[in-house]
Amino acid sequence: MAIDVKTVRHVAHLARLELSPAEEEQFAAQLTSVLGYIEQLSSVDVSQVEPLSFAGDVEPHQAHALLREDKPVQSLPREDALAAAPQQDGQSFLVPRIIE
User: What tens digit of pLDDT does each residue of 60-71 get?
Assistant: First the structure.
């Protein structure tokens, strides 16, 4: 499956990204390559492979050692988060109403 520039433009618009024509071409080629690789992977017979509950080079019973302690940490300041928003009111993100 090939991704064309029109699709890249559509996704970039939805993500509120501004891409140059060269970037659109580059992303179209890269995404087409990724999808080609996924198609290759889908042809691999994995019927004899046991499912894993943990991905990595660790035995499942050791997985807990890789997880950090769950404790509160300083979050992103509201002003910094809102600075990247297309629309905001100083307190919240503003999004288009989709339900009438």
Answer: 566 566 667 788
Q: What are phi and psi of 3, to 5 degrees?
A: -100, 125
Work out the burial of residue 95: count CB atoms within 10 Å of its CB; fewer than 13 is exposed, 13-18 middle, 19 or more buried: exposed
Q: Which domains does the chain have, with CATH numbers?
A: 1-42 (1.10.20.60)
**Separation CA 37–CA 43 (nearest Å):** 10
Contact 89, 79 (CB under 8 A): no
Place of tokens 């889908």: 42
Alpha carbon distance 20, 9 (integer Å): 10
Paired tokens of 31: 């995404």
Contact 27/59 with Cβ under 8 angstroms?
A: no
Q: Is the pTM of this model over 0.85?
A: no
